[in-house]
Amino acid sequence: MDEMHKHFSEAYNRGDLDAMAATFAENAVRVTPSGIFQGRDAIRRSFSDALKLGLHDYSVQRTVSRPEGSFVFNAGTWQAKVGDRPFHGFYSSILTSESGQPKIVEETVAVAAP
Question: Which of 25, 48, 55, 59 stands the most exposed, by the fewest C-beta atoms within 10 Å?
């Protein structure tokens, strides 16, 4: 899981939308302050919109991780910058395995209150 978060953060910071979307299952759901995105293609487009906002220096810190049957539940914090202004929040995700690789099937992202 740590390796997946590391690769996702690296992909985000270089603007690699395909690599970012590939961390999600084909039928994944992502819930964000901008809306609900269903399916890998819609999730990819949501990341494109986030990058257009100028989010950069993205990183994730997982604080909870536990197996739940055939899934893994994760929760933690994320941080990024818009310009030189810090921006952060919280996330939860549910992961499964596809072809031996962890894939996110559901992710919820929240922005921390100022």
Answer: 48
